[in-house]
Amino acid sequence: MCTLKHRFKAARALISPSSRFIELAVRVFYTSMPDEEYLKRMYKAVMYRELDFQNPQTFTKKLNWLKLCSRKPEYAIMADKYAVKEFVSDIMGEENVIPLIGVWDNHDDIDFNVLPDHYERVKFVSKILRLSQKDFSKMIGLTQTSLSMIEVVTNVLTEKNIKLICATFNVREEWLREGKGKIFNDSPCVKEICDILRDLTPETQKSLLVLAKELLRVEQKQCKSEEKSSKSEETEKIPSPIDDEVKQSKDSELQKICEEIQKAAYSV
């Protein structure tokens, strides 16, 4: 079916020599044309200026000069995502090459069930930490687009990415790679808190447990309010009396908790 867009392109190709040349080049019409002539005509059709191979000055002109005058066999290997792995491993060592997941001739042949699960685990880490994709990517030095493409298995999760995620969020590398064991490394604070709790009386332990639950409730409430504010419009927000009331409410809740902690400490 010939759409309006196709008709417009056909009409433009008939009127403009440059558009006509590009359209025919896309359809592999100039296979017998000498390379130098083809590059000159294509450059003029796209850039609207002549291409000088004798004295190239701009970046694009130098690139075209390289296409014509520098034809090293390894260039074909470097442009092949599969063949370049062996090329790089021979020079730098296999440990510096991104692991190969699979090779397919057609995207319809890909069995997504055999792809590594650590891509899903990356998303799970950001979810459990209540971090947006934008904040998560920023903390590990990636763009939001790059992280999104990793999560949908378009981009490869590199060794550097894995190390950064583990170091930044205290995630166990074995869990991220293979899904084995606990998600996070034990914090030194956890062990210290457990040691202190063992030395306290049962009554004090119960009091601290109640306080810990209350602190967790306040923190979860604060996280939810931050999530709502991040989803709101990103323009600068004007402070309102309601915001002040919420802040005062949080401060009073924390003040009560601190008073309870002090009472528990004096009762030991």
What do you see in this structure?
The chain is mainly α. The chain has three domains: about 5-70, no CATH class; about 115-180, lambda repressor-like DNA-binding domains (434 Repressor (Amino-terminal Domain), Orthogonal Bundle); about 190-225 and about 245-265. About 65% of the residues lie in helices and about 0% in strands. The protein is built from 14 helices and no strands. The protein has helices spanning about 5-15, 15-25, 35-45, 60-70, 75-80, 85-90, 120-130, 135-140, 145-150, 160-170, 175-180, 190-200, 200-230, 240-265.
Question: What attributes does this structure have?
Answer:
single chain, 268 residues, 434 Repressor (Amino-terminal Domain), 14 helices, elongated
Fraction of residues in helix: 55-70%
Number of domains: 3
How is the main sheet built?
A: none
**Overall average residue pLDDT:** 77
Gyration radius, in Å: 31 Å
- Total number of beta strands: 0
> Tell me, what's the shape?
elongated
Structural class by helix and strand composition? mainly alpha
Number of helices, counting only DSSP H or I runs of 4 residues or more: 14
Beta-strand fraction estimate: under 5%
Order of helices and strands: HHHHHHHHHHHHHH
For the terminal residues, how far apart are their CA atoms?
Answer: 84 Å
The low-confidence runs, each spanning 5 or more residues with pLDDT under 50, are: 233-243
Brief synopsis:
It contains 14 helices and no strands. The chain has helices spanning 4-15, 17-26, 35-47, 59-69, 73-78, 83-92, 118-128, 133-139, 144-151, 159-169, 173-178, 188-199, 202-231, 241-267.
